[in-house]
Design goal:
Mean pLDDT: 94
Family: Belongs to the FemABX family.
Number of strands: 15
Low-confidence stretches: 346-351
Distance between the termini: 57 Å
GO molecular function: aminoacyltransferase activity
InterPro entries: Acyl_CoA_acyltransferase (IPR016181), BioF2-like_GNAT_dom (IPR038740), FEMABX (IPR003447), PG_Glycine_Bridge_Synth (IPR050644)
CATH topology of the largest domain: Aminopeptidase
Pfam families: Acetyltransf_6 (PF13480)
CATH architecture of the largest domain: 3-Layer(aba) Sandwich
Number of helices: 10
Largest sheet: 7 strands, mixed
Number of domains: 2
CATH superfamily of the largest domain: Gcn5-related N-acetyltransferase (GNAT)
Protein name: GNAT family N-acetyltransferase
Shape: globular
Radius of gyration: 22 Å
Helix content: 25-40%
Strand content: 15-25%
Structural class: alpha+beta
């Protein structure tokens, strides 16, 4: 395993490729996103995404400052690299360190594979080498339900007033409607079809395209019950809402979820989220991240943010994702192609589809 030379900036930190064990030991008890753990490698492999490398960004004394796991991915048939919710910062995260780490990573990528146009990773501070994502959206603000009070009344008391009322009302309405909520993590593949259909209905209603069913099933099975759970609300045996929860250390994340239109009549989604929070609190988790809300950078998440803000008095700022060009010419070509497709679609929509 090799170490990068010091960069032209003169900073003392270096980049060193490591294995999973060394990265895990370096991170220790620092909170880390599930996507940066060894467990996530199994899920990425199930999607055909190979681990490209794990790296430690170390100080002059050799002690780790940050850790990052990077996977190979594709966009429009072209390769790129993705470090989801990475890097994990172990010491001070300054703008200078962020920029220096990106500089070292670009050099490493060029050294290993000049066909890679860009790296997608997270950063706190905006900078000239960071670009908005070519596809999909990110978030830099979220709401986390504080589970440390442990008891339902204490957890609810930590919420805003309208949130306290909402969760208790949802629990009562769902119970009166005859709903049953349970952990169905170990269900069989054949049973998952009905679960996925709830997501398909959600997608039709809300205007988005879901992943194929195997993406969600593979997440459950590859991560295993230690890191992925499926909580389901049923009425008369029929699934109406579900949450796919991932866990890393003492932190839980509502990674995916769905709800039927009918469930709105008995507040199914709220009742399920509240049940999930209470269940995870009993198991000793410290927070349930609702994974994304609106911010000045991402106004598209306004509606979901309005729902989630009831569960916590204050938002939690997180590092958003950015594209980091490695090969400027190839990245510019990808962006131009996207712009061209968007212009063609807009023109087609104005003229009508003939």
């Amino acid at each position: 395993m090799t170490s990068n030379d010091h960069s032209a900036t003169g900073r003392p930190e270096t980049l060193r490729r490591v294995d999973g064990r060394e990265m895990r030991l370096a991170i220790g008890n620092t909170p880390v996103g599930i996507e940066q753990t060894e467990a996530w490698e199994r899920y990425e492999a199930s999607q055909g995404h190979a681990l490209w490398g794990r790296y430690l960004y170390a100080g002059e004394d050799g002690k780790p400052v940050a850790a990052i796991a990077i996977y190979a991915d594709t966009i429009g048939g072209r390769p790129f690299l993705w470090a989801k919710h990475g890097p994990t910062w172990l010491k001070e995260q300054s703008p200078e360190r962020e920029a220096h780490l990106r500089e070292l990573l670009r050099a490493e990528i060029r050294r290993r594979d000049r066909a890679i146009p860009f790296l997608r990773m997270h950063a706190r501070y905006n900078a000239p080498d960071l670009h908005e994502l070519l596809n999909t959206i990110t978030y830099d603000r979220t709401f986390v339900i504080d589970l440390t009070p442990r008891t339902p009344d204490a957890i609810a008391a930590a919420m805003p007033k309208d949130g306290r009322r909402a969760v208790k009302r949802a629990q009562r309405v769902a119970e009166e409607a005859g709903c049953a909520i349970s952990d169905e993590t170990g269900l069989e593949r054949g049973e998952f079809a009905a679960i996925y259909e709830v997501l398909a209905e959600t997608a039709r209603r809300d205007g988005f395209r879901p992943h194929p069913a195997d993406v969600y099933w593979s997440m459950l099975t590859s991560l295993g019950p230690e890191h992925a759970r499926l909580f389901v609300l049923r009425r008369d045996g029929v699934p109406h809402c579900w949450d796919l929860i991932t866990t890393s250390g003492k932190d839980a994340t509502a990674y995916y979820g769905a709800s039927s239109t009918e469930s709105r009549g008995f507040r199914g989604a709220e009742a399920l989220d509240w049940w999930a929070a209470r269940t995870l609190a009993e198991e000793g988790y410290r927070g349930l991240d609702l994974m994304g809300a609106d911010s000045p950078r991402v106004p598209e998440l306004y509606q979901v943010g309005m729902y989630k803000k009831r569960y916590a008095k204050h938002p939690t700022e997180v590092d958003g994702a950015w594209d980091v060009p490695v090969n400027q010419a190839m990245y510019a070509a990808l962006r131009a192609a996207k712009t061209g497709r968007g212009a063609y679609k807009a023109l087609r929509d104005r003229l009508g589809r003939h």
